[in-house]
Amino acid sequence: MTFRGDVAAQPRISLLRGPRAGRFAAIPMCVLAAAFLAGCGLSGNMGSLMVDPARYSAYRCNDLVTQWKTLTNREKELRGLLDKAGESGGGTVIGAITYRPDYESVLVQEKMIQQEAAEKKCELESSYKSDQTIR
């Protein structure tokens, strides 16, 4: 026999009341924040925000050449990883989220080194094809 005042007999209408309300409300917010941050990583201008504009101003020509070689090798490595991830359907998204921000950061750093080298009149790539001297 159920009485109208019996709390156990009344069905719960809303799950968003009580101590668990915060958990259920936080889930959509976390999903929204994750989607927003993933979108930031995919944007074309994000790499420039991750690099200090004056980072290479104190570098000398030899340092710029060394850093240039390191960055071009890293660019090739990341490009290969992006291409490999793009071979599968789900890998494209994972590759874009995982490798794309680093790849764009490397590209921005390369542009900065090129600008700094031009200002200092440095040659990043040697125009000589051989390191052998003529005898």
Question: Can you describe what's shown?
Answer:
Helix 3 (61-85) packs antiparallel against helix 4 (89-98) and helix 3 (61-85) runs antiparallel to helix 5. The longest helix is centred in the middle third of the chain and has 25 residues, at 61-85. The protein has five helices and no strands. The chain has 135 residues and is mainly alpha-helical. The model has no long low-confidence stretch (mean pLDDT 75). Helices cover 61% and strands 0% of the residues. It has a domain at 58-124. The chain has helices spanning 21-42, 46-49, 61-85, 89-98, 100-120.
Summarize the SSE layout with pairings.
Blueprint: H1 21-42, H2 46-49, H3 61-85, H4 89-98, H5 100-120
Helix pairs in contact: 3-4, 3-5
Approximately how much beta-strand content do the residues carry? under 5%
What string gives the helices and strands in order? HHHHH
Which structural class should the secondary elements be placed in? mainly alpha
* Global mean pLDDT: 75
Shape label? elongated
Helix content: 55-70%
Distance between the termini: 111 Å
Query: Could you describe the largest sheet, including whether it forms a barrel?
Result: none
List the uncertain runs.
none
**If you compute it from the alpha carbons, what radius of gyration comes out, rounded to the nearest whole angstrom?**
27 Å
Number of strands: 0
Number of helices: 5
